[in-house]
Input
Amino acid sequence: MSIEFRSVGKQFPDGTQAVGDFSLMIPSRTTTVLVGSSGCGKTTLLRMVNRMVDPTRGSVLIDGEDISHRDPVALRRSIGYVMQNSGLLPHRKVLDNVATVPRLNGMAKAEARERALTLLDTVGLDRELGDRYPSQLSGGQQQRVGVARALAADPNILLMDEPFGAVDPIVRAELQQELLRLRRELDKTVVFVTHDIDEAFLLGDQVVLLQRGGRIAQVGTPAEILANPTSDFVAEFVGADRGRRALRIERVGGADVVVDELGRPAGVLARSASQAEAGARTAPGAPAQGELAS
Output
């Protein structure tokens, strides 16, 4: 499902202008990441999609339908939502947490529990954890349960509000890779909020870099933003102004090694199958396709 923001703005009762004038199209079955510092309005925008926050002006549309005409509770039950601290009900076991929305939607208890067990498989958790309480799980396990619960009603849209921000870096990297796998397998429209530009570039098909008040600094693919920052603000935010993103290739022991601006190895440049085949046909002594001639 596509999501469209049309000139939305949000001013809270205390006078705080969270979002000024924001317009954006989020294509169906892609991952769009809203990234920016605290106070830029990214979470406010995310919560407009499931009407946890209603805009002061403008409109949000899902597949062309203005969601202000939809019942907020029914809308929320049709959209998956994952927050930073999982938001699990502490007094309910893991299986019951995952089965919450299907049960609220009228699914029989046995069927809802079976679906919950299947979703534990989907997010890479042992089914035996279903009988535990959230407090008996690690932070990373709790977040996986939170993702399973968000997927329980098989939503077309998945909202994720800094879901990996409260776990350690190793677990965070694992959860990021898990999300990439789920995205390939489940084909959802994902809106992801983060303040981490590296996470945004890793996960996003479309990255929206925000300034205070929900002002868009730049929209594009990670490659487009890295290649052509549109302002000093963008260049500074992504690290391009300091050469932090500048990589080069060095030939080491017969392999192309990618190094950063300080000469630290960042990886090995792999050739595609077609390049390898072309290289096999290259005359001895000539640089193969995909390699640098010295």
